[in-house]
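look at this:
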Amino acid sequence: MQTIDRIFKAQLDIKKSNFLAFLCPISSFKSLHEHLKEEHFKAVHVVWATRELNKYGQIVENQSDDGEPKGTSGQPSLNALRGAGLINVGVLIVRYFGGIKLGTGGLVRAYSGAVNEAINEAIKDGGVMKFEIKDEVKFFTPFSLMSRFEHYFATKNLSEFERDFNDSGAIWSVNLNEAEFAELFKFCKEFEASEFKFLALPLGSKALFIY
């Protein structure tokens, strides 16, 4: 599976209708959808489709025809995402009607074509990358261990994390892939006798506790 790291845009013009496709990371989908509806308030339709991996490792798919004939726009757009093997992405297609009806087959080709154009833009611009499954890890560290973990995160280039401080220390939250978690788990073993403790672990990590 593959994913993207930023928003990509493409335009397809068919029989005076304009199809503006916006391919985005799933994290940007909601805000982009709201922005496009405001910016293109004169557009007839804003069709969309999404594919994302939930916390149970299941692929969740959604789509909307947004007033187009059922099955002519949202589903073809979703099929284009599937065909490219994309995950944790969304696509929105803004349509400006040109006065000429395209028919069922024409709409299917137009929407899937617009999405594929956006996907091709992402490929050409180097924005498509291998998708890595990352799960949330939470753990508690007392203040006495804070600097040790700060140094570890810095040396491993783990800059995207959250910390909630309390009177005793901090609860850390970070998303890690399998290899990153295995390294962190190995590092944490020397603190087992201290107040350090894991609070949330990735799915499938229980095997690490058998030793």
The radius of gyration is 22 Å.
